[in-house]
Design goal:
heterodimer, A: alpha+beta, Glutaredoxin, 4-stranded mixed beta sheet, 3 helices, 4 strands, globular, B: 571 residues, Rossmann fold, 2 domains, 16 helices, 23 strands, 22% strand, rod-shaped
Chain lengths: 101, 571
Amino acid sequence: MKNNNNNSCSSNTIKYRFKLFVAGNEPNSVQAKEKLEKVSIKYLNNDYEIKIIDILKDLNSALENGVLVTPMLIISLPTHETTIVGSLSDTDKLLNALQLI
Amino acid sequence: MPDEKNISKKNALPKISTGIYGLDQILEGGFPESRTTIISGGPGCGKSIIGLEFIYRNAVNGTPGLFVSFEEKADAILQNAMTLGWNLKELEKDKKISICAPYIDPKTIISGQFSIMGLMTIIDAKLKELNTNHMVIDAIDILLKIFNDESKERNEIYSFHNWIQEKKITTILTVKSLTECTSPIRYDFLDFMADCVIHLDNRVDEQKSTSRLRVIKYRGSYFGKNEYPYIIKKNGISIVPISKSGLRHRPLGAYISSGNEDFDNVLGGGYRKCSCVLISGITGSGKTTLANTFIENACNKNRSRILYIGFEESQEAIINNMLSPGIDLRPAIKTNLLQYLTALPESMDCEEHLIRAFDKINEFKPDHIIVDSISACPRMGSEKIAFDYIMRLLNFCKENDITCFFLNQTIKAMDIHQISGMEISSLIDTAILLGMIEEKGEINRIVIVLKSRGTSHSNQYREFQITNNGISFVDVYIGEGGVLTGTSRIEKEANDAIERRLREQEITKKRHEIASKEAEYEAYIAFKRSELEVVRNELECMLTEEDIRLNNVNKRGKLRDNLYKSEESIS
């Protein structure tokens, strides 16, 4: 597993910034990761940055961000910091948080 | 904890001290080790404090612990602990405590399935870092709310519980009490899951709020099943369960002087160590003076340590007031043998009063305590509360070999029935009643020892005076007609003296009479004897005469015999 997974293309203007906390290969985490990537490719025109953090390996960032439940997605751009927990199976909620609906 | 307890518990469930002495007693040792304990209660009951105290006390004793709070921020926890005198920062630096206060954003959006894996990972790492398996999770209900679904909550907490059990973590979970929750039944499954469940509640009785603690269940262990009142005081939780092991009072000890030789005699030798002495009387009858006479003597002569629990006067007032009857308590205070614990009964509830007293006794270790006065105790709330206070204080003192002096202000002057002082009479070893008799325009002080176990005390009223030189007993009037005091006694004594003198004169008179009678008798005898002598002399004379006469006859006869014989020869 990689600690950081940067999918940024246009380096100067990033419209969307995500931090996704996962717990190893736990099913919900894997699902969330896949879902986020899928949604990003589909809706975000490469204007995004995803940082995937495995709390089993990087405990400190889990502590800093108060990650009690996994998977947890923190969106710091374009909105104020928004937290979404869960496998992201409810796409509408994610899009809603990204102000795309 | 005493050693015996540990040994007897070895085969049973392993336990870990709660860090709260009274709670350890109720739980017969402490929280179950490697198991889950739930503490539930309403707001302000002290759930978090019990949890924090458990972590703190064990950390101080060398066992590190983790404190996870979902309710308060870490800074606030540290600050709150500081007000209780617990320096958690220091312990955190030494890796004895770790405080973890993850923030849960209430605006968190939920999309799909998730688990509290993150929490478990954090806990696991923290426990490894501290090298311990003790943790407290404060306000677990706040974490559970994020699921927003009852069955999910339940599943998640069960898997969490399984994980705790697998890891053998001694866990204390605090939960808001059922009644305070919006959906009351929501968290009751926690009670079924846990091995030990403690409920806290706060009730208002007679305008005094009391916090009470009850153990609902404890798998594999005995526990105290009552409701136990507790308070949160300046250094943590305090619970004083009434000893479950029955009466452990020791027999009465050596005689100790009352500070007044005459009164020692009345008592049949003095007070007894470890006894309970009740001094009753109306206001101004000299209860405080009698008690302070004892204090002065015990402190100055025997170097005894005395704790004075005052509900009526301040320390300064008592010291000043006692100077008038010549009792100087200042040396005793200077040498720290006499200490005061004063408060108005209304200022705290019974539990706080009691714990304050126990703390002081534990710290100061007095030989004797004085309570001035138990008649003020009902002002703590009610008669029942006062009885509770006195009983438990007395019990505590008896178990610790402390002599108790209870001053009791009665309403009627010489009401023997009132002496019993709130039904505690059977626990009283020595009962002293001070009274005042009003007679002939004066008031005289009297004292009687109503009972005194283990001594042969006087059964009479005795009169005493409070002089500039302390208490002074007046000699007993031992004449006829009962006990007399004051002027009556003096009058009676004067009358008695006159009577005595009269009786003495009477006796001398009789003596003289006898002497003269004797003389008379002697004279009479002498007279009669002389009379007899006269008669006897007369008889003597007569006998002599007779003798002479007889002699003459014989002579004549002889002469006449010769003549007769010649006449016979003629014829």
